[in-house]
Structure formats: structure tokens, C-alpha cells
Amino acid sequence: MRRVGEEGGRAELRVTIVLGTRPQIIKSAPVFQAFVRAGVECDIINTGQHYDYEMNRGFFKELDLPDPSADLNVGQGTPSEQVSAIVGRLGKEFAARKPDLAVVPGDTNSALAAGVACSKSGVPSAHLEAGCRSGDARMAEEVNRRVLDHASQVLLCPTAGCVGNVRSEKVLAESITNVGDTMYDSLLRFIPSVDRTDAAAAHGLEDGGYAFMTLHRAETADDPGTLKEVLRTVSGLGVPVAFSVHPRTRERMREFGIEPGPAVELLGPLPYVETLSLVKRSRFVVTDSGGLQKEAYWLGKPVLVARESTEWGEIVKTGAAFLVGTSASGIRSGFRKVAGVKKGAFSSSRRIFGSGNASENAARAVMRYLARAAKGTR
Q1: With contact defined as beta carbons under 8 Å apart, do 276 and 257 qualify?
Q2: Would you tell me how many other CB atoms lie within 10 Å of the CB of residue 143?
Q3: Model pTM greater than 0.90?
Q4: pLDDT tens-digit profile of 172-182?
């Protein structure tokens, strides 16, 4: 490890961020920039778990990230194949680069694999967005995030509730900090661009007169009966629906022969600003995405969460989001509640998720840990 004061009196530290999906890029972009501002040598390794350009490298460009130092090109495959490929290839990258620490965002296959590779390579890891819990171990992401928290030395939690979760589990991390939510940092940075973008008009939609929807989780997309019921029910709510279709979901729709219904307009994966613009101008959001639940809340839009549980229970408690599951009755019941959501439901955003400086907090927490490690006092 490079010691504090070795070169020109500055701390020469090398941090690698490992990511591979669209949400991970959004979480990581402001953190990368915070490290650069702090004078830390930082690079990015891209696993390629999201191999569609608009869901991966297009986001690098839009969020002002440099090209990755390495592309692992894991691409398609089963979860086991993806994790295995990432662990092997990432281990070789760590051996060549010798980072002082790897930042691992989120709860994807890429994140799980990065955590395992760190452990096997002797590279300390900082889990960004640590401590999230849905309580549903059937969800692959729930298992991933629990394993990561217990394998990481630094836990960068987005909320006080997440800190409480890892404390209650007696996680043995050496540093646990509520830094705030770095996705919120990204959103605040791009709000001026979002306000200038009228994505609704570009798609022939009326401001406040449509729903914005995403669906991508295995438990929804991979079950033909579930996927068909959700699409049919949403199409029958009497509201136009702008459906940004994940490549996986589009493939399943073709495989199962499922048509979305006349009220649903199929859109491809969208750039970040365009997505936020469509959310902000919508009437409400339907999603099984964890990240979009938060973005809708921050933009003041009610959310129908097409899941039985969520890691963002704080939002549900405000009354701005409803766990509706994937049944027709649940979705319709949630829809009837949308009109009753008050503006005050969104007023706790900064109290829950921080004030937009989560990335600086995260960088400082990592640097404190590395300084202690350099002195042998961690």
C-alpha cells in the first residue's frame, strides 16, 4: 500500500470501482468524481453485465465518466456463469493493478462477483449502498447484498435504517458509515438538464397524463403468467403507459408471445436524463426497480412497486409508494391510491437520503479507512 506522504507529501492511493450495470454507473459516477477531486488515483473496471450500449457505455458518456481501464465483457449467461467469469477475470486485473481498495456498488451479479474477487485477492472492499434489506431471501439481490456486507471492510450506507440493519446483524466490517445516497447526488446534478428536456412531448405524451413503467426482475420477467398479468392490468388502468423495456424483458415478451396492450407504448432502454424527464412529467410510476423507486420519490411521483417487498421501506412509510405485487387486484388497488398521495409525502427526502453530498462522504470514509490501514491502526 502507498503510504501517506510518500510522494510530494500527498497520499498516493489507488482505488478501483467495479461496475457493470446501469444502476451501478449512476451510483458510482459522483463517487469517481469525488475521488478525483480529492487527489485519489481512481479507475473503473467494467464487467459488461449490461452489454447493451444504452444501458452501459452510453451511460459512461452521459454521466461524464472516462473509458474503463478494463472491460471484462462478461455479457450474457446464467447468473452462475456471469459470477464465475467476473471472479476469474477480475482476479487477474487485481493482480496486475494492485489497488489499495475496490469500491463495489449495489447488489447485482457484478457486485457479488467483485466482492468474492476482492476477498480471494486480498483487496479490501467498500460496499456502496450497504445495508439495504427487503427481508425476502428469494430475491437474488437480497442474497448478494447480504454476502457483500459481510465480506466488505467498509460499508457505505445510504440511510440510517441501513446502518441499523448491518448493526443488528453484527456485521464485522471495520468501518460503517451513513454517507447518504449517491444516486441522489447524481439526480441533483442533472436536474437542470432534466428540466430542459421535454421527453413526454417527444413521445407524444401529455404532461401528468401517463404512467412511466419499467420491469426487469427475474421473478416478473421470467414468468409468462406474471408478466402477462402485469402488462394486461397496467394497460387496463385507463392511463397511457410509457414502458421503457429492459432487453431481458423484451426477449421474454417475444419468447412468450406476449403483447403489451393498446395503452402501452414500448420504448427501448433510455438515456439517464430522458428517463428522469419522463418520470418527472408522469402522473405516477410502475416499477420493480430499486433505483427507480428512489428517483420517482425524489422527483415527487407516486410509485406502484410491482414486488412483494422492497429494500426502500422508508419510502413506503412516507405514503409515496405502494407495494402492489404483480396481481391484478394489487395493481388496481394501488392505482386507486395514487390520487390521494399528498405533496407532503415527499418532504422527507433529504432527511432520509442526505443532502446531496453522499459522494464526498463516501470518498472521505474510504480515505479514512486507508489512512488507518497504512498506519496499522484499522
Answers
A1: no
A2: 14
A3: yes
A4: 999 999 999 99
